[in-house]
Design goal:
Distance between the termini: 108 Å
InterPro entries: QcrA_N (IPR045603), Rieske_2Fe-2S (IPR017941), Rieske_2Fe-2S_sf (IPR036922), Rieske_Fe-S_prot (IPR014349), Rieske_Fe-S_prot_C (IPR005805)
Family: Belongs to the Rieske iron-sulfur protein family.
Strand order of the largest sheet: 1-2-3-4
CATH superfamily of the largest domain: Rieske [2Fe-2S] iron-sulphur domain
Largest sheet: 4 strands, antiparallel
Radius of gyration: 36 Å
Shape: elongated
Subcellular location: Cell membrane
CATH class of the largest domain: Mainly Beta
Number of helices: 8
CATH topology of the largest domain: Rieske Iron-sulfur Protein
Oligomer: single chain
Number of strands: 10
Structural class: alpha+beta
Membrane topology: Multi-pass membrane protein
Helix content: 25-40%
Pfam family, one: Rieske
Strand content: 5-15%
């Protein structure tokens, strides 16, 4: 092409926008890289070692799961000893961690060293709920079984199933810790029975109501109108953690509120259990036992933050919203000769969740 023809040729090749268009050939499919055989594909001895490694890992997982269950029994947390609690958490955690880790490492090693190593291309296509689609799905599972060797390699299959089943056991075992445990208190004749354990708290006649957590007793005159005070028995401060401090506090915690006496209608309240508009109710929600700690002084509503159950203090703490099934148990109170608020007795019904079978 001469220099005189060059501008004319460029003009034909240039679109009206003024941008030159480069015409190239379509990108060619480079294909798959050359297949490189694994050592286990070339050496039967290496394949046997890989198989042994995989099922050994699965059996290690099985042993770790059993160890987690054993640790739960060897280091009981019911004793209240901090050393036992630390060991319980440590060894159960290590058992579960090794159980899951061994399954994961074994599954990865199985897929990398033993399963079929042939590359293939899966074409994209629309999926519809037709018979051909269902048959294709069945074929996929059949091919996966053949390639993985799951159906043929009984040692791996058996060890994997055993490890997976065992890995669930520690979690199931830990649910045992959610149930109430027995007590040496003579006031608990039905040792281990939830009804007896939750029906009786450490409140006794004449026990002073005290601030939580300081343990300072509360005068009736110091309770402001519209206030909500977190309360524990005064004698709770004399207990140590080794003597069941947390267990007793969990059952005995109370919320103290003061309303105008006329805001407590007699048809909805036991006025003999209150003093000058001051009422005390269990702080343990009757749904699943969360602490009821939010008080709205204008509406006199108590709110449980866990599942939004609401209780109306002006109507005997009855349930007005949410999943709770019964009102909060009321603690009967009065004042002593020095003007301190005291309990008239223990709660007259079990505190806490309503799903316990109550007498």
């Amino acid at each position: 092409m001469s220099h005189e023809e060059e501008p004319q040729a460029l003009e034909k090749a240039t679109p009206s926008s003024g941008l030159a268009v480069a015409v190239t050939d379509p990108v060619q499919n480079p294909g798959l890289p050359p297949h490189r055989e694994r050592m286990t594909d070339k050496d039967p001895a290496a394949m046997k070692r890989a198989v042994r490694t995989v099922y050994t890992l699965f059996y290690i997982s099985l042993a770790a799961s059993l160890w987690a269950v054993a640790a739960y029994m060897l280091f009981p947390i019911e004793s209240g000893d901090f050393g036992a609690i630390r060991n319980n958490n440590l060894f159960i955690g290590l058992g579960i961690a090794f159980a899951l880790l061994a399954i994961g490492i074994g599954a990865i090693h199985w897929s990398k060293a033993i399963m079929s190593d042939k590359e293939h291309i899966e074409a994209r296509h629309s999926t519809r709920g037709q018979e051909s689609t269902r048959e294709a799905a069945v074929n996929v599972f059949r091919e996966a079984n053949e390639e993985s060797g799951f159906g043929r390699r009984t040692a791996i299959r058996g060890s994997l199933i055993a490890a997976l089943v065992a890995s669930i056991i520690p979690g199931v075992t830990l649910f045992r810790g959610l149930a109430p445990h027995g007590s040496n208190d003579p006031d608990h004749p039905l040792v281990g029975d939830p009804v007896a354990l939750l029906k009786h708290t450490m409140w006794k006649k004449g026990d002073r109501l005290a601030h939580d957590p300081s343990g300072l007793p509360i005068r009736a005159a110091d309770v402001a109108l519209g206030s909500a005070v977190h309360v524990i028995p005064e004698k709770l401060k004399d207990l140590s953690h080794h003597d069941g401090y947390l267990e007793e506090k969990a059952k005995a915690i109370v919320l103290l509120m003061r309303l105008l006496p006329e805001q407590l209608p007699a048809e909805h309240n036991r006025l003999e259990w209150s003093y000058d508009g001051i009422v005390a109710y269990s702080k343990v929600c009757t749904h699943v036992g969360c602490p009821v700690a939010l008080y709205e002084q204008q509406t006199h509503h108590l709110l449980c933050p866990c599942h939004q159950s609401q209780f109306d203090v002006s109507r005997g703490a009855e349930v007005i919203f949410g999943p709770a099934a019964r009102p909060l148990p009321q603690l009967p109170i009065t004042v002593d000769a020095e003007g301190y608020l005291v309990a008239m007795s223990d709660f007259e019904e079990p505190v806490g969740p309503s799903f316990w079978e109550r007498h």
